[in-house]
C-alpha cells in the first residue's frame, strides 16, 4: 500500500480521500528540515503547501518518493529541477485557489484605497478619527497587472467590474486574449508609468525577482499604490520602504514577503503598509478545492500512473495510463536496446509511431524511450529527467506519427544517429501486451527480450550458429531462446542473432564469442 505524508496544514478532506483510495497517510505538520529528512524515506508521496521546503537534501533522503503534490499554485518552495533529476513528479493544483487569491488582491486594493485596517484599529481604540482617513476612489483609476495568467486575469475582470481602466504586462499574454479580457496589453515601463495601482501576479523566477526594484519604483507615478499577493521576492522591500517614507508611493498591501514566516520585516509598523500573513489562498472554499485536488492527483498517480498538473512530466489520464503501460514497456526496451549498442555520442533520435499507437498520448512514450536510451550512458536518468537530459546534451529528438502500419496493429520504430552511424530498432506488442522486437537495422527478427541477452551481428556463413552454440555452451552459459534474422534472402550477407541466456553473460564468454570467425559485433545486453 503506498504511503503519503501530509506535511503542511491541509483541509481534512485530503486525508479522507487518501484513506478512501486505500493509501496510508500520516499528517505531520510543522516539521523542521532535519525532522522531515529523517522520516521522508518511508513515503511514496508528499502533500505540501508553501511551508515545507523540498530541497536537494530532502530529496536525497527521499529514497522512495515518487510524487510531490502542492496543494496550491506556487512551487518555488520545491527544487523542481532536482526533483526531476531524481525522477520525482511535482504536481500543483493550478486553479483551485485562483479566484480566492484574486479576491484577496481586490480586498487589499480596497484596504489600501480606504485605509480600512488603519481606520479599523483607530476606531477600535475609541479614537473616532473621522477626518484623519481620506481615501481615493477606484472608479476611473488605472490598475496595472503584472502577470496576467489565471489570477491576474481574474483580478483584471474584477477591476473592470469596478470601472477601472485595466492595463497588463505579460510577455505571454496574446493580443487576442487581452481583447477577450478587455485589458490593454502594455510593456512593463508603460505600465509602471501609468498605473495608479500595480498588482503583481507572476511566479517568482530569475526573471521576475525584483521586478519592482528601486529603479522601477522610482519610475512609478507619484502617489501610486502597490499590491503583492504573489511572491515576496518580486519587490525590493528596502526600496519600497524608502519610496513609502519619501511619499513617492502612497501605500503598499503585502500578503507575501521576502522571508517567510515574516516575523520581523523593515516594512512592519509603517502606517502606509497593509499586511496579511500569506492569506491569499486561505478561504475554506479554496482550501477544500486544493486539498481535494491534490489528494486525488497524488492517489491517481500512485495507484494508476495517471499524471495530472505535473510541472515536470507530460500528463497521462487515468483512462490512458493502462493503455500506455504495455507500450511503455516496449519503449523502454527499444530505448534500452539502442542505448546499450550505442558506442559513440548521440546526435539525434527519431521515434516513429505507426498504426493504433499513433492515436495515443505519445509524450510519455517518447520520455520512456529516452530514459531507456540514456540509462546505459548516464549515471542516473528517469522518465522525468530524460527529455531534459537529451535537450541539455544537444540531442535532437524527433517524433513522427502515421496512422497506417503495414504489418502490425501498432509499430514503434526508433532510429538513433550517432557520430558514426544510424541504427534502428522496431517493436510491436503481441496480444496487445507483450513487447516484441521485429526489426533491427532493417533486418527482420521476432524476439522477446529477456533479462540477459547476447546480441550479435555476423556474416551469414554455414556452421556459424553451431560454433556459436558450442562456444556459449563451453562457457557454461545456457541458452533460453535463439532468434535469427538476415538481411538478404540469399546466404552470405549480414545477419543478426539475439540469444536469450539464463544469467548474465560472463566477460570470458563474450570475448570468446567476439573472437569467433564471421562475428562483426557482439554485445551482452541486460533488460
Ligand atoms: N498569496 C497567495 O496565497 C498565493 C499566491 N500565488 C502566486 O501567484 C502566482 C500567479 O499564479 P497564477 O496566476 O495561477 O499563475 P499563472 O501561471 O496562471 O500566471 C502567471 C503569469 O505570469 C506571467 N509571467 C511569467 N513571467 C513573467 C514576467 N517576467 N513578466 C510578466 N509576466 C510574467 C506568465 O506569462 C503567466 O501568465 C503564483 O506563481 C504564486 O506564486 C498563487 C496562489 C496563492
Ligand atoms: O498557492 C500558492 O501559490 C500560495 O501561495 C498559497 O500558499 P499556501 O498554500 O496558503 O501556503
UniProtKB/TrEMBL annotation:
Listed Pfam families: 2-Hacid_dh, 2-Hacid_dh_C, ACT, PGDH_inter
Domain D-3-phosphoglycerate dehydrogenase ASB: 323-441
The D-isomer specific 2-hydroxyacid dehydrogenase catalytic domain, residue ranges: 4-312
Record's keyword annotation contains Oxidoreductase: yes
CDD domains: ACT_3PGDH-xct (cd04902), PGDH_4 (cd12173)
GO biological process: L-serine biosynthetic process
Keywords on record: Amino-acid biosynthesis, NAD, Oxidoreductase, Serine biosynthesis
Known EC number: 1.1.1.95
GO MF terms held by the record: NAD binding; phosphoglycerate dehydrogenase activity
Pathway: Amino-acid biosynthesis; L-serine biosynthesis; L-serine from 3-phospho-D-glycerate: step 1/3
Reactions that this protein is recorded to catalyse: (2R)-3-phosphoglycerate + NAD(+) = 3-phosphooxypyruvate + NADH + H(+); (R)-2-hydroxyglutarate + NAD(+) = 2-oxoglutarate + NADH + H(+)
InterPro entries found in the cross-reference section: ACT-like_dom_sf, ACT_dom, ASB_dom_sf, D-2-hydroxyacid_DH, D-isomer_2_OHA_DH_cat_dom, D-isomer_DH_CS, D-isomer_DH_CS1, D-isomer_DH_NAD-bd
Residue span(s) of domain D-isomer specific 2-hydroxyacid dehydrogenase NAD-binding: 106-280
Domain ACT: 455-517
Domain of life: Bacteria
Record-stated family: Belongs to the D-isomer specific 2-hydroxyacid dehydrogenase family.
Function: Catalyzes the reversible oxidation of 3-phospho-D-glycerate to 3-phosphonooxypyruvate, the first step of the phosphorylated L-serine biosynthesis pathway. Also catalyzes the reversible oxidation of 2-hydroxyglutarate to 2-oxoglutarate.
PANTHER family: D-ISOMER SPECIFIC 2-HYDROXYACID DEHYDROGENASE FAMILY PROTEIN (AFU_ORTHOLOGUE AFUA_6G10090) (PTHR42789:SF1)
Protein name (Swiss-Prot/TrEMBL): D-3-phosphoglycerate dehydrogenase
Amino acid at each position: 500500500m503506498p504511503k503519503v505524508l501530509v506535511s503542511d496544514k491541509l483541509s481534512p478532506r485530503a486525508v479522507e480521500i487518501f484513506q478512501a483510495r486505500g493509501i496510508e497517510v500520516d499528517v505531520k505538520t510543522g516539521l523542521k528540515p532535519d525532522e522531515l529528512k529523517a522520516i521522508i524515506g518511508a513515503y511514496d508521496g508528499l502533500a505540501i503547501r508553501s511551508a515545507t521546503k523540498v530541497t536537494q537534501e530532502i530529496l536525497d533522503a527521499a529514497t522512495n518518493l515518487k510524487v510531490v503534490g502542492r496543494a496550491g499554485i506556487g512551487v518555488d518552495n520545491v527544487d523542481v529541477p532536482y526533483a526531476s533529476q531524481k525522477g520525482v513528479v511535482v504536481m500543483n493544483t493550478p486553479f483551485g485557489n485562483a479566484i480566492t487569491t484574486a479576491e484577496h488582491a481586490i480586498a487589499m486594493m480596497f484596504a489600501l484605497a480606504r485605509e480600512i485596517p488603519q481606520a479599523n484599529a483607530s476606531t477600535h481604540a475609541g479614537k473616532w478619527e473621522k477626518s484623519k482617513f481620506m481615501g481615493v476612489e477606484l472608479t476611473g483609476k488605472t490598475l496595472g497587472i503584472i502577470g496576467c495568467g489565471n489570477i491576474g486575469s481574474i483580478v483584471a475582470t474584477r477591476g473592470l467590474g469596478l470601472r477601472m481602466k485595466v492595463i497588463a504586462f505579460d510577455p505571454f499574454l496574446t493580443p487576442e486574449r487581452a481583447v477577450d479580457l478587455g485589458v490593454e496589453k502594455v510593456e512593463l515601463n508603460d505600465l509602471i508609468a501609468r498605473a495608479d495601482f500595480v498588482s503583481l501576479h507572476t511566479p517568482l523566477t530569475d526573471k521576475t525577482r525584483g521586478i519592482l526594484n528601486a529603479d522601477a519604483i522610482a519610475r512609478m507615478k507619484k502617489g501610486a499604490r502597490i499590491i503583492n499577493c504573489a511572491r515576496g521576492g518580486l519587490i525590493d522591500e528596502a526600496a519600497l520602504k524608502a519610496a513609502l517614507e519619501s511619499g513617492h508611493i502612497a501605500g503598499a498591501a503585502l500578503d507575501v514577503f521576502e522571508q517567510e514566516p515574516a516575523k520581523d520585516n523593515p516594512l512592519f509598523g509603517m502606517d502606509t503598509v497593509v499586511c496579511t500573513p500569506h492569506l491569499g489562498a486561505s478561504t475554506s472554499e479554496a482550501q477544500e478545492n486544493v486539498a481535494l485536488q491534490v489528494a486525488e492527483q497524488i492517489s491517481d498517480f500512485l495507484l494508476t500512473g495517471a499524471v495530472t498538473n505535473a510541472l515536470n512530466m507530460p500528463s497521462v489520464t487515468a483512462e490512458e495510463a493502462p493503455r500506455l503501460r504495455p507500450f511503455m514497456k516496449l519503449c523502454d526496451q527499444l530505448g534500452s536496446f539502442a542505448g546499450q549498442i550505442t558506442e559513440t555520442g548521440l546526435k539525434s533520435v527519431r521515434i516513429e509511431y505507426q498504426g493504433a499507437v499513433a492515436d495515443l498520448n505519445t509524450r510519455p512514450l517518447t520520455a520512456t524511450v529516452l530514459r531507456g536510451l540514456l540509462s546505459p550512458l548516464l549515471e542516473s536518468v528517469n522518465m522525468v529527467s530524460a527529455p531534459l537530459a537529451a535537450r541539455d546534451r544537444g540531442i535532437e529528438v524527433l517524433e513522427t506519427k502515421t496512422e497506417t502500419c503495414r504489418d502490425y496493429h501498432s509499430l514503434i520504430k526508433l532510429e538513433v544517429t550517432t557520430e558514426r552511424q544510424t541504427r534502428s530498432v522496431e517493436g510491436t506488442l503481441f496480444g496487445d501486451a507483450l513487447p516484441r522486437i521485429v526489426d533491427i537495422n532493417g533486418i527482420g527478427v521476432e524476439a522477446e527480450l529477456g533479462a540477459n541477452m547476447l546480441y550479435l551481428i555476423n556474416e551469414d556463413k554455414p556452421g556459424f550458429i553451431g560454433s556459436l552454440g558450442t562456444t556459449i555452451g563451453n562457457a557454461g552459459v545456457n541458452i533460453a531462446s535463439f532468434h535469427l534474422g538476415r538481411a538478404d534472402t540469399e546466404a552470405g550477407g549480414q545477419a543478426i542473432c539475439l540469444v536469450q541466456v539464463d544469467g548474465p553473460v560472463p566477460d570470458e564468454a563474450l570475448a570468446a564469442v567476439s573472437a569467433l570467425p564471421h562475428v562483426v559485433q557482439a554485445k551482452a545486453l541486460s533488460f
